[in-house]
Amino acid sequence: MADPDDPTPTGERLPGVTPDPEGEDRIVLHVDMDCFYAACERLREPELRGEPVVVGMGYEAGDDGGAVATASYEAREYGVESAQAITTALERLPRRATADDPSDTGYYRPVDLDFYSEVASEVKTILHDCADVVREVSIDEAYLDVTDRTAWPVAEGFARHVKQRIEREVGVVASVGVAPNMSAAKVASDHDKPDGLVVVHPAELRGFLEPLPVEEIHGIGPVTARKLRDSGIETAGDLAAADRAELGDRFGERGRELHDRARGVDDRPVTPRGLPKSFSRESAFGSPVADADRKREQIRTLAAAVADRARREGALYRTIGIKAVEPPFEVNTREWSLPGPVEDESLLVETALDLLAEFEDDRIRKVGVRVSNLEFTERQQASLDSWGGSGEGAGAIAGARAGSVSDGGSPDRGDPNATVASPEEPHDLPRGQTSLSDF
């Protein structure tokens, strides 16, 4: 469903905005979630907001093994840093549960990547809704090329809209950088963390970069920064003024690339990483909703939008799923697998509504619809009617769905990632049946 507050409807430009005919002034956003793992833990436990939070990889509750994956900004004030041993972190910031003085203690939580992926998928749904081209770099970071959606005079407002949608609809905070290219946008998003929004117009790019410490240029780590400083190169301006040939001799092609980036030159296009694995749309209610008709209407709208996206992308899908989020953030996902790939909006809507029936009486704060197990081959099997001819397809699909229910009934409400497999695809799922854990 389109956001009523969205100034740029999907696939359209702002009114009165015309594209740059020369293509010289690209507008790239770098969206980077602030302390993402800690932010997700605060979604699950709102009492952690404003408190020092440490998320540990390989850490178990009450233990002292593992390493710091993420430290909130409050925890960083005590000297806790990413990649630090948990034992070191505990020396600097004792656990709240075991310390006598809560004013100098923090909360420690183990990494829960399944949950973080659920939250990340909600953010990425917004990003794909706001841009035609999205490059997902990691679970908490992405580049957006929005040149066809906005223009430089209003780019700040566009970026603020993206940022506010993420905070309003998902509940986590992002820092956003806006610049004419990817490397500069990355520098801009890092420049004013947390909760930052930095816009660097093309005419201001060199002036923005020149005074920055050389290690703030994207691609320069501590070792390279030390080597550059040994040569008297302290700032991005120094690097931009350095002899390009000498940098090439010392660092190879990478030296020439860093010289370009220090000058604000980066011609790399924002390109998605491979074909999408799924299409989904989600929408949050203003407050939790128990009314079944409202939930069903929302699902119909979302399913139609997903079907339209799949049709425009030339994709067939074998798996249809829904998401129903109960307050405060209990994520439930359900799905059906079909006998074969289809492109059939009515089937998508009907199946999504059937899956929603399990949550008919529940208070729901957000719903979503998703299709996966995509195929981008030439469409020979494009609708339910062509399955077997003479209506056999409808019977096969209906039989699969009925068989699935009779085999196991509704998925267990205690398992938020429960799936239902058709008789044609047993539960060991050799043909690619997936759960909605990455919905």
Descriptive report:
With 439 residues, the protein is an alpha+beta fold. It folds into 3 domains: 28-35 and 116-262, Alpha-Beta Plaits (2-Layer Sandwich); 36-112, MutS, DNA mismatch repair protein, domain I; 278-408, DNA polymerase, Y-family, little finger domain (Dna Ligase, domain 1). 35% of the residues lie in helices and 20% in strands. It has 14 helices and 12 strands. The strands form 3 sheets. Strands 5-6-1-7-8 form a 5-stranded mixed beta sheet. The longest helix has 22 residues, at 292-313. Residues 1-12, 14-23 and 379-439 have low confidence and may be disordered.
* Helix-and-strand structural type: alpha+beta
Kindly report the spatial arrangement of strands forming the biggest sheet: 5-6-1-7-8
| First-to-last CA distance | 17 Å
Helix content: 25-40%
Q: CATH topology of the largest domain, which one?
A: Alpha-Beta Plaits
Specify the CATH architecture of the largest domain: 2-Layer Sandwich
**Total number of beta strands:** 12
Q: How many structurally independent domains?
A: 3
Mean pLDDT: 82
Poorly predicted spans: 1-12, 14-23, 379-439
Fourth-tier CATH superfamily name of the largest domain: Reverse transcriptase/Diguanylate cyclase domain
So how many helices? 14
